[in-house]
Amino acid sequence: DAKNRGRNRLRFFNQQMQLDVTERAVLTNRLRTALGNQELYLEYQPQFNEQQGMIGAEVLLRWHHPEHGHYAPADFIPVAEATGLIVPIGNWVLMQSCFTLADWSNDARYQHWQLAVNISARQLLDSHFVSGLADMLAQTEAPPQRLLLEITESQLLDDTELAHKQLYQLARMGIQIAMDDFGTGYSSLQSLKNLPLRQLKIDRSFVRDLLDDSSDEAIVRTILALGKSLELEVVAEGVETAAQFKALHQLGCRQFQGFYLGRPASLEQLYTLVNERS
Ligand code: C2E
Ligand code: MG
Ligand code: MG
Ligand code: MG
Question: Which stretches make up the EAL domain (predicted)?
Answer without folding.
Answer: 24-278
